[in-house]
Amino acid sequence: MAKYAILTSGGDSPGMNCAIRAFTRSMLYQGHKVVGIKRGYSGLLNKDFVNLTASSVGNIIQRGGTILQSSRCLKFHEKKFRKAAAQKLEEEKIKGLCVIGGDGSFKGAYALYNDFKVPVVGIPGTIDNDISGTEYTIGHDTAVQTAVEAVDKIRDTAFSHDRVFLIEVMGRNSSSLALKVGICTGAENVIVPGNEIPYQEIGDKIKKGEERGKKGSILIVAEGGKEGRSYNIQKELQDRFNIQSKVCILGHIQRGGSPSAMDRLIATEMGVLASQSLSHFKEPMVTTYTAGEVGLTSFPQCLTGRSENIEAQIELTRILSI
Ligand code: F6P
Predict the structure, then answer these.
(1) Which CATH number is 3-139+259-302's, of 3.20.20.70, 3.10.20.30, 3.40.50.450, 3.40.50.720?
(2) What global pTM score does this model have?
(3) pLDDT (tens digit, 9 = 90+) per residue, 43-91?
(4) Is the beta carbon of 14 within 6 A of some atom in ligand 1?
(5) Do domains 3-139+259-302 and 140-255 have the same CATH topology?
(6) Which of 179, 222, 224, 225 has the highest count of CB atoms within 10 angstroms of its CB?
């Protein structure tokens, strides 16, 4: 019998609890013990540990957030703190660590292995779906659904008042959330990060829509790593085309809520696979979801930044918003 630990790090996402439950129960099933580390790497440095049992991870499969809580721990960028973390794990005779989080959290886990040979496994958990090496990260589907429901509500009032709305969604520098939300809500435009904003095209489309009697327009804006960029776009539309608009930043509502069935399923499969990878440790691995299957890949594969092929989806929004 050995002892393993699990933590959640970075921005929380719906489905993290499903992964904690699956990892814990699968370890217990194999005859091992599991320690939960509170508040990510900060809790590891403070030795904020809690024993996880079959019942302590009961009744959490449907809960959003993370029962272990999370944090963004800047100290973990420094080797001296990673050394302290490795020592804490050793003091507690913890044989390996499972990290649920995004690529920043994975960098910390991989460094812990490279510098101090701590066996680690990663489970991708972020609403942004921005990790390379996997087509899916836990929480993304629920976040898309939450945003879609919010946009549907805003469309009701946009229609009633003939208004243009700029609705900003999360995702850091990823376009994944914005494009899916745009397609699923029939948005007139989706503004993705990185590219120059095609103001003329946007202005023309809104005016054309008005001419054919369109009641209200929805523009989905990807935050692009700069929360509030919608206000600049609002000003440009006003200055260039005299188009008045309202801004709605959906914000952290997208991170909460009960995980969708898809998130529960993938998180559960990843949790079990992560526990098996760690208990039969050969090298650090990350669980992935590719072509409909849960699998494993190496850490470096997940640390290159996801390059998305967004052209097809942008074209789809163009076709459908004539
Ligand atoms: O990475 C998840 C995410 O929700 C991003 O989409 C967003 O930019 C960021 O976290 C917000 O972080 P915080 O909750 O620390 O403000």
Answers:
(1) 3.40.50.450
(2) 0.97
(3) 999 999 999 999 999 999 999 999 999 999 999 999 999 999 999 999 9
(4) no
(5) yes
(6) 222
